[in-house]
Design goal:
The protein is built from 2 helices and no strands. With about 45 residues, the protein is mainly alpha-helical. It has a domain of about 25 residues. The relative contact order is 0.15.
Length: about 45
Amino acid sequence: ITQVAKERGMTSIYLGSKDKHIKDSLKAQRKVVDKAINLITSTNSF
């Protein structure tokens, strides 16, 4: 959940600034969130 919150904050900053550095950081953070979601869903399969 912390990683998702971090991504949401970075998205807000990016939308306000359109800074390329922030955009690149946001893309990297999205990969972290995607991996975390995949880990959670794969370990909680019923």
